[in-house]
Input
Amino acid sequence: MKKSITYKDSGVDVKAGEELVKSIKTIVRETHNVSVLSDIGGFGGLFRPDFSTMRDPVLVSSVDGVGTKLVVAFKAGQYDTVGQDLVNHCVNDIAVCGAEPLFFLDYFSTGKLNQSIAYDVIKGFTIACRENGCALIGGETAEMPDIYKEGEFDLAGTIVGVVDREHLIDGSKVQKGDLLFGLPSTGLHTNGYSLARKVLFSEYDIHDKPEALNGMSVAESLLQVHKSYLSEIRELRSMDGVHAFSHITGGGIEGNTKRVLPEGCELAVDYTSWNRPAIFDLIQKTGNVPEEDMRLSFNLGVGLVIVAASDKITDLAEWASNRQTPLYIIGEVV
Output
């Protein structure tokens, strides 16, 4: 008589997935507000927005992943920050359009579900969702044996937000002579990790502390949480003379800021106008990476670009001083 083969034998443990959902319900509910009409575990997340204060609401959505920063998390055995990275990355992508985040959905896929690791990742989602004021209303946890190696997983997230159409920021106000102001990043954020890993892991172990990093380990530096700029954008988007924002991700400062330029305009970026965080210098020197590749692959220490009229220097400097945050003048629109 043939031996029976179960779903669990094939590598998928349905009960483990059900137990994970039960374990995360409390922390997920902490992100909910009066607009959330459903609990996690249903076929779909239910969200009833209140657009009564808007004349012409426009939904803004974005989907993204964390990329090979996950490999660093695997090596370091640290899983509570990559979830924050994903939420903050998605929030920034819609915030630069002037949108307020409403809700977030995640996708967690792995070969064999490790409930402890999954819990840490999802906890990261909830931390960032609370910080950004958006609700985690659902997600998908998929076990896919033979797709991922043991201990590996992948993440993706979708965010939906809203902006009143008259307050939509689309770059249409940008003009020749506008200045580019930069806000600092917390490190690589979530881009350039394939290059960073190839360079650094050929020379260092994940827990090494190169002298250039001033006491930080390679893991600590590479796993710095991707910063959310939502609060800064909220304060600046209504300031007269602020014309656009650019979230600096893959493609670097120029590749991303070009997205908000009207036809006929270009960028003149002065890459010597701010001090790069030590991790970028370490990558460049260790791998003898050409400057062109550095500019294309990394944010180089500038996570958000503000495009504003040149006569707003004093106003923006005062704003930055009040927030006690560095503000760099990094170039202009030409």
Observations:
- The first helix runs from residue 14 to 29.
- The first strand starts at residue 57 and ends at 65.
